[in-house]
Amino acid sequence: MEVVFTRRYKINLFFSLAVSLTAATFASYASPYLLKDVFSSVENYQGGIAAVVFIVFHLSLTSKYRKRKKIASAPLPEEWRSILSDLVLFYRMLSADDKYIFEKKVQIFLGEKRITGIGTDIDTTVKLLVASAAIIPVFKIEDWEYDTLGEILVYPDRFNHDYSFSSDSDDRDVLGMVVQHSSSLIISKKELFKGFKCMDGGNTAIHEFIHKIDEEDGEIDGLPVLMLNKHELAEWKRIRAAEIEKLESGRSDLDSYALSGEAEFLAVAGEYFFDHPEKMKEKNPELYNILKTIFKQDTASIIKSEARRLFRLKRK
Ligand SMILES: [Zn+2]
Question: Fewer Cβ atoms within 10 A, N terminus or C terminus of the chain?
Answer without folding.
Answer: C
